Amino acid sequence: MHLVYPTVLASLLFAIGVYGVLARRNAVLVLMSIEIMLNAVNINLIAFNAWLQDTLLAGQVFALFIIAVAAAEVGVGLAIVLMIYRTHESVDIDSLTELGDAQGAPRGTDRAAAVAVEAQVR
Amino acid sequence: MTVSSLITVLAAEEVSVPIQLSGTTWPDFAWLIPVFPFVAFFVILFFGKRMRTSGTAVGIVAIAASLVVSVGVFAQAYLHPGFVEEKKVILTPFGDGRLTLGMKVDGLAALMFVIVCLVSLLVQVYSTSYMDGDSRYTFFFAMLSLFTTGMLIVTIADNLLLMLVGWEIMGVCSYFLIGHFWEETPNSNAAIKAFLTTRVGDVGFMIGIFILFWGAGSFEFSTIIERAESGEMPRNFVVAGTVAIFFGAVGKSAQFPLHTWLPDAMAGPTPVSALIHAATMVASGIYMVARLYPVFELSGPALNLIGVLAAITMTMAALIALVQDDIKKVLAYSTVSQLAYMTAGLSVGGYTAGFFHLFTHAAFKGLLFLGAGSVIHAVHSNNMSEMGGLRKYLPRTHATYLIGCVALAGLPPLAGFWSKDEVILDAYYAAGFGNGPEAVATSPIVGKMVFASAVVTALLTAFYVTRMYCLTWLGTYRGKGHPHESSTAMTVPLMILAVPAALAGLWGSPFWPDGHNIKRVVAFAGQAYHAPELVPVVAGTSVALAALGVVVGFAIYGKGLPRRDPTLSMGLVTKTLERKFFIDDLYLHAIVRPTRSTIAAGSNWLNQNVFDAPPNLAGKGAVLAGRAAYAVDQSIIDGTVNGSGRMSYFTGRALALVQNGNVQAYATGMFVGVVALAVAFAAR
Amino acid sequence: MTLAQAAPGYADVTAQEVIFILLGLVAVAGAVLVVTTKNVVHAALWLVVTLAAVAGSYLMLTAEFIAWVQVLIYIGSVVVLLLFGIMLTKAPIGGTAGLDGENRVAAAIVATALGGTLATLMVDAFRKAYIDLEDFTASGADETGTAIFQHYVLPFEVVSVLLLAALIGSIVLSRNDEGGP
Fold this sequence. Notes:
heterotrimer; B: about 675 residues; two-stranded antiparallel sheet; 26 helices; about 5% strand; disordered N terminus; C: mainly alpha; Four Helix Bundle (Hemerythrin (Met), subunit A); 2 domains
């Protein structure tokens, strides 16, 4: 078959997976979207392996390894999600913003000094 | 002297060429004469308060020393009439307009030295008693010394600038001395009036100095005289210079129209009046004209002007003296009138006669003033209406005062007659009568005016002198308290002055050996003058008029103050005389009030807004610049610094939005980058 | 290589191509449903559909072993794990409204751009490429096993260690009483 079909399929699946990763709020759904992306990559590998008729079957072996790693990754990922669930009572990604900049005062300074600095600057 | 010589008109004589004295003689030390009182001034000023005698001893010793040197110099002058000694020290040895400190000692100066030193000494001795107990006793003596210094500088100076220095010193000292009792406003006003009026004259004086300098190229008297006589100095300069410089004399010697200060200056202590107004300062104007007389002789207009002013002043002052009640005021107006006699003498070519009168006047007027001081001291009042019958209370003062009065009235053989007669005689010749010496530059009309005025004034003088004498010394005492004779320190000077008042006139009379009479001593070398003489018509007229005045005076006032003093009852005439011919009023309304109000306000406005404008504007500009710099600093410079800080802050805030903690947002950014890279690689 | 041989045009559609296209459509549909459905459990089930379709396309590409491993591992264990995760995090069983985050629009744009770019790129690059499957018999399970244990033994062992590490890590992470990690 034309190589175009597998590769285009892989591209579409990958794009959909990207959308899911970026848009979904539930952490588990994000993990699922990541699985979709990995599968897209696998299709690509298999297709190229077939096209190139690799005697070493590198593409397939690589795809196998990807599956194994994906499984491991899902395990660990879910463990993390459980931890998050334990501390936050929800797995809403949008609420997990402790690592972000507090949008009122600069990090690392206390509130009073920050207010004073702001007043002086203004 | 035989009768024939009495009526012979002596021909004009010329003094021979100036004699230079050989060897070291008294005139070599003449420069010490002003130095002694000058040193005394500083010593009294700085140490006087601490001395036992409060500095008076220093002043008296200094002036006595000056008197000794003056007598020595005068002896030389007397023995060698026509000598001249000039010395100078050049102060600026480069350039053409050299400043020199020099002395010119001749007969004129020598006589002046003696007059000034003698009167000053007597006044200082007198003041030790008169001013005793005054709060500013020491300062008074310091000022007397300084004043004497000033007058002596005027006397000794050989150039106009140095004379001006002495002139101004005298002006300042007269201000201090007249205003000695400045706690009362009329006294300080009198001092200011004296200072300002003489200052007005000084303006003319300085203009005259510069015109003469411009014309002659030098400030020195000898040079100016020489250049004027040789014709090197153009005639315009001669006339303009002499007219201008005479105004200084008008101011200092209290001639019309600048005479108003002298009567008011009687507010000062009486010794001051004696020194300044009888003998010295007022004489300085006469002296200055005498110093430059050869130049004046060439200037007819100047001499005419002098003559006219003298004639007016003479009579006017004598008339005003008729209605005065204050004894010092009578003497003041008398001084003005007698000064006019001196200037009249100058105007008609007889400067030696005028100077002779100066000499005798110094003696008898000084005597009269000191005597008046003694009377005032005894009666505690200046007004003659509160005196009378003092003959028995103050005998010594009375005797000397009487001598002074007779001298002033011009009765022979006392001094006043001889000098007055010489002046009248010169006027007589200038008027064209008689066979006088060759004509002087004065016009005959002026000469006639002067002659008439002099003759009338002689009558008036005798009258008011008699009035003054009678009201003070005769009749019954009208005052309060018990008057008593003054102390020795006050009466001795009176007695000393009585001698020249009585006898000095003889020195200028025809009875003195001709070679050494005063006129010759005082005359310049090469100066045309005529020896003293008695012309019967003239002399007889003046004596007769004086006698008439005395007799009428005695008739009216012989028994003291009459119930109705005729001079005070002449209605409008009296009023005019009392108001001093309204001249003071004229000055007040025409000059003083406008100056005080408008001119003063105008010059204040000018000063504040025009002259002070540049520094004010500079100050305001500096303030504005400071403010602008501050604003720039605050807004722009600090603003830049602050702005950069603010920009960093806001940039940081903006960038912080990226790190919002949302993992998916980060991933989105990453994928955008991936897409971009992919597109970039694909597009190649 | 037979690559350069004149590839048949696109008009010649073989049976394999047809099946592949159908499976591809199923996979894409399933994936779209995974990322858009409002029910979390449904999303997991649609994931199963997607993974199965992908396994089928492996078969079409003569990768038998991989296809069955996919079914076994992915559908068998990964999806089960995911379901466990859903249940343990008490995801709402029914549908919830706010499953899509705030990022939706940006994500859609990015995904579209990415997909478009990649697809265009692939089409442009591999237009003339053709997978010749007639002569290719060397990709069966035999061959895959031989390749793994002959040439890729080391990566294989490493992957086992990796799995072990992941296992231990998961246990450590999810321990309850002794605190966190």
